[in-house]
Amino acid sequence: MPDLLVILAKCVFFTFLVVLPLVPVCVYLERRFAGVIQDRVGPNRVGLPLTLFGAARDFHLFGLVQPLADGAKLLLKEDFTPSHVRKALFWLAPALLITPALLCVAVIPFGSTIELAGRTIPLVIADLDVGPLFVFAIASLSVYGIALAGWSSNSKYSLLGGVRASAQLISYEIAMGLAIVPVLLYYGEFNLVRIVEFQARHGWLLLPCVEDGRFALPTAAEAAFWVPAAVSFVIFTTAVFAETNRLPFDLPECETELVGGYHTEYSSMKFAMFFMGEYTAMVIGSALVVTLFLGGWSLPGLDHLLQQPGGGWRPWAGLVHLLVFLAKLVAFILFFIHVRWTLPRFRYDQLMRLGWVVFFEAALVNVFLGALVVAAPHRGAATTVAGGVLLAVLAATLAWAARTPPPRPSPAGNA
């Protein structure tokens, strides 16, 4: 029974006190960041209305209360359901979008361990040996919410947005899955907790210059693997943008073509749940990138100070690691927001070509490159060179095929 209570406490803490509060934080940061990029002020007025109590002026708090005002506005708006929709599925769709994102919280390691009442508690809800596979399996279910929202709305704009989202998610899930294959080959692990512990000992995947928590020069194998790791990082991060329907991949919501996309007919809190699902998915995607590529909760130098002389972590080390993880998470979310307000939107044919022709082939070649680098220390020089030549031929062939434009159909008059 105590173990069940600990699990329930971690579910409540990480879901409702860590991840969900990050959603309004992301909204505020997005609006402020957009204001800076567009050379305007952004939200800076909503605060404490002290003038209602006789004060000389209100306390604006730099607009930090703006997310509460947005939530109150959406909560108090009329919850209008059009008469022509399929009501059961119309109401179910927002829940199907946000639920998979929240379930993915279960396998994200937010910190190392803490000691409470003589018990060592890992800061992860479920320490599964198939963490990345669990995230992919659960996160892919969110497409049902988008597709149902578009279909149940009985609107051509909404239906087209749902179809676009379905095609987009399927296209980039393949590249995303292939992108982490070299990473998992390097770690030899599917367990996200042990992956972060490996990085705490040997350095981040993109910063392999740590040994036992201290800075050190990378080995030849670590330095060589940095190339496939960097390619995996670029492909995986781009696929996360596409999976969360963020600019420049927000074609399912393209207002210039589809009014609002799959959520055009929604209002009030059902409309808000779609955006909660989008931002929650952005938080989970950022957390997965931080966990796989940027060391998770580990921080070189600090980890050495948090270790006990006899081995293991100090009783309060998990809280420090939690703060480190959240700092990395917020930094990567700011990168998300910067890209969203910097790059223009792709055309839909460019979106599909990038996913199927460019990233799919690049991720496939990167799988062989990562396997070659991992196996090189255990094979002879002749085998490694032969593998490199074959890989170069494969990469050149795929690049030539990707550069060849598809044949254009002849006009009907010339047929």
Runs with pLDDT <50, length 5+? Answer: none
Give the mean pLDDT.
Answer: 84
Major sheet attributes = 2 strands, antiparallel
Oligomer: single chain
Number of discrete helical segments: 15
- The count of β-strands is 4
Overall geometry: globular
Separation, N- and C-terminal Cα atoms: 76 Å
Instruction: Please give the order of strands in the largest beta sheet.
Output: 1-2
Structural class, please? mainly alpha
Portion of residues in beta strands equals under 5%
Kindly state the percentage of residues in helix.
Answer: 55-70%
Query: Mind telling me the C-alpha Rg?
Result: 24 Å
Question: Element order, helices and strands?
Answer: HHHEEHHHHHEEHHHHHHH
Give a short overview.
The protein has helices spanning 2-37, 66-76, 87-103, 131-139, 142-152, 156-179, 181-187, 192-202, 220-243, 255-258, 268-293, 302-306, 317-340, 348-375, 381-403, and strands at residues 113-116, 119-122, 210-211, 214-215. With 415 residues, the chain is mainly alpha-helical. A two-stranded antiparallel ribbon has the order 1-2. The chain has a two-stranded antiparallel ribbon with strand order 3-4.
Description:
With 415 residues, the protein is mainly α. The chain has helices spanning 2-37, 66-76, 87-103, 131-139, 142-152, 156-179, 181-187, 192-202, 220-243, 255-258, 268-293, 302-306, 317-340, 348-375, 381-403; strands at residues 113-116, 119-122, 210-211, 214-215. Helix 3 (87-103) packs parallel to helix 11 (268-293), helix 6 packs antiparallel against helix 9 (220-243) and helix 6 packs parallel to helix 14. It is globular, with a radius of gyration of 24 Å.
